[in-house]
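Bench log, entry 3. Co-assembly request; chain sequences pasted below exactly as received.
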Amino acid sequence: MPPFPSAVVIREVGLRDGLQSIQTILSTQQKIEWIAAAHAAGQREIEVGSFVPARLLPQLADTAELVAYAKTLPDLRVSVLVPNLKGAERAIDSRADLMLVPLSASHAHSLANLRKTPDEVVAEVARMRAARDAAGSQTLIEGGIGTAFGCTIQGAVDQSEVLRCMQALLDAGADRVSIADTVGYASPAAVRDLFEKARRIAGERFWCGHFHDTRGLALANVYAALGTGVARFDATLAGIGGCPHAPGASGNASSEDLAFMLADMGIDTGIDIEQLLALRARVAQWLPNETLRGTLWLAGLPKTFQQRAIQTAIA
Amino acid sequence: MPPFPSAVVIREVGLRDGLQSIQTILSTQQKIEWIAAAHAAGQREIEVGSFVPARLLPQLADTAELVAYAKTLPDLRVSVLVPNLKGAERAIDSRADLMLVPLSASHAHSLANLRKTPDEVVAEVARMRAARDAAGSQTLIEGGIGTAFGCTIQGAVDQSEVLRCMQALLDAGADRVSIADTVGYASPAAVRDLFEKARRIAGERFWCGHFHDTRGLALANVYAALGTGVARFDATLAGIGGCPHAPGASGNASSEDLAFMLADMGIDTGIDIEQLLALRARVAQWLPNETLRGTLWLAGLPKTFQQRAIQTAIA
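Structure output for the full assembly:
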């Protein structure tokens, strides 16, 4: 096991993966407050929304506005999700720093959720790359391989298929690739094994891990992934989120719990945990009818816990 | 990191650490049903109760009866907790296979909870050892070092003090030692570090890890501990439990979630997870007013998950 990374980025995806999975619709002003407070707490990468048709996800219809606001904040990487070329064009126009293109390694989940096969997504990424380059845009393209450990429709997903998709995404022009346990099928040994292989394929372009807490293993899976040198993880404030195709699935790794685990391990995240907990309390007030998760908000920080001095934010 | 152990024992402590922390009092008959079903599901080590004065913990007053019943089941290691020499004498009389003596590495917690200093507990262990040997008894003595990562009264606990107590317990005649994060202060990096050092002191006599899920890290902590070669962990069905001196603290590692994590890692626990989930549903009916925890009961096993053939139970 290599040494743990000295710094880790927690990418806040609550405004996208969280809000798309719940009933409550936050106002644009509330989302802007959330982004501002997350940035003030030290978060340096935020997925602010998704460029999907507003009729499909009305709760994310203000994504362009949120990108425009978030781009005014210093040292913040502004991400969006894009399902197709049309969304990528909007992301490029918005000047988002990064656009994540989801690909489902499970064919069954891919057809149900994206209405495309994995290889059709790869072909779309090639078109996005051409469009990005033609526009002279700096927007990074991240190919996000979901259901990488299995899904509720198909069950197990072959590791070889995940790695094949990863290579295909890189060949098609993705700048980054990431691996997501979309519905909470991963366990730490499987994470360690797959992430080690993915690192050998993609090196530093293997960008991010994304875990759900469906079976209580999100943080254990992050810990296993840390040992493979990956230093960026998606998480959502209060663990909100889920997946419409995963009945019984619970939310994402909780940003505040993850920030605590990393801080207690001596790993710099740039995040002030007390501020993040204060933001959680505020967002919880906006979501009185939703299931919120996480444990730190209830237990509090350990007595005499002292966060090490926060280092320079990680690029 | 050494390879993971091929087999791990989950010691069920729900009948002691769980039931002592909740309001509901189960009948002896219910507890016997629980023990029988846990044994039928493949659990091979169960802490059935505690030899403390019945006026202090009336819910555990039937411990001797439970030991007598559990001793009739084949291949089951029957454990009890004993706070002092008097309890140890009762454990020896009961013919329990193992008695766990709690020691708090936090002096403040030790005085509040046990009304003894750690060194007074060590001296009591020496008296227990003498009594055990004088009786010609086979009951193993396990010194369980609690609040090993900190506590809510004192805050941080020095690693050196934990290791000093461990050496003192071994010197006093404890057959086994274990480490408990009584109130949920551990994080995986701290676990790995302390457990590696403990293994160097106690070798195979370092017997067991005990984690609470106060900050969502119980399973991540087990995973970190597995890498140090420890192959036995306490857990409670439905994660019930807590600590009277830890406000806001949540329960133990959940037996069923832990059994799933280990099974998915290819580690043999001897446990049939479906049977354990059925037992959880039954116990949940007995505890309608208690906070139960864990995630697997809600999410279910992953589709196409196949538990590897259960090997011979681990001695």
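Residues 118-134 of chain A form the longest helix (17 residues). Chain A has a mean pLDDT of 93.
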